[in-house]
Amino acid sequence: CETCSKEEAKYRCPRCMKYSCSLLCVKKHKLALSCNGVRDKTAFVSVNEFTDLNLLSDYRFLEDVGRTADAAARHCIVHSPATKRLLYCLRNKARGCNIELKTLPVGFTKRKENSTTFNSMENKFYWHLKLIFPHCHAEYTLKGVPDDKTLADILKPYIDPVESDPVVCQRLKIYTASPQSDVQILMKIENRNRNSVRYNELDASRSLLDNLKGKVIIEYPTLFVVLKTLKNDMVVLGQ
């Protein structure tokens, strides 16, 4: 037994493969290692150790995934008239602004995350927005961003040396220390081949709505904030 080192082991944990002699030692090892005792179905198995049991396990895992996705797709809320009407309205309003907004099926992460709304009284979008700072491996999610707000104002709390939050400023130090003229805002162009990834360069002085016009958006905009001197494989359309 790898817990008490006294008795002969009788059990082996499916999760961490630790040997135990009794229920008491099983509970102790779970507490000590924060182990839930559930086998990791996605754990790596080398080709040399791969057996028919592993193949069967993978097959059953894929079946479980299929059943879960199917159950989510059949959920009554997904197909309710209110949900469909809301999505149709959102896409229709975006089309009126010369934006091709596409929504994903239920179950996709972006579909769950998206909190974009359209205010009919103000005739304005409030976007769910994701900012990615690749040089610092940082991501930030913004909710309820008005479409008339400029990109420069959106980025001020993150990369402005004076107005940014001290904690964020420290994490994005490479951006705050660089001149503003070196900062570039890019958005990936959708519906292109994987081997031909291109980006649109956005104008920081213009509003979010103006920058999104004429573009395809899947669920919500994702903006990449890069430095021109460090940008490597992110090719802007036309270059």
TrEMBL record:
GO-annotated cellular components: nucleus; pre-snoRNP complex
One Pfam family of this chain: BCD1
Occurrences of domain HIT-type (ranges): 1-35
Keyword ATP-binding attributed: no
Superkingdom of this protein's organism: Eukaryota
UniProt-listed SUPFAM superfamilies: HIT/MYND zinc finger-like (SSF144232)
GO MF annotation terms: zinc ion binding
One example of a Gene Ontology biological process annotation: box C/D snoRNP assembly
Keywords assigned by UniProt, alphabetized: Isopeptide bond, Metal-binding, Phosphoprotein, Ribosome biogenesis, Ubl conjugation, Zinc, Zinc-finger
Similarity section: Belongs to the BCD1 family.
Known partners and oligomeric status: Interacts with FBL, SNU13, NOP58, NUFIP1, RUVBL1, RUVBL2 and TAF9. Interacts (via HIT-type zinc finger) with the RUVBL1/RUVBL2 complex in the presence of ADP.
Described purpose of this protein according to its UniProt entry: Required for box C/D snoRNAs accumulation involved in snoRNA processing, snoRNA transport to the nucleolus and ribosome biogenesis.
Protein name: Box C/D snoRNA protein 1
Gene name, Swiss-Prot/TrEMBL: Znhit6
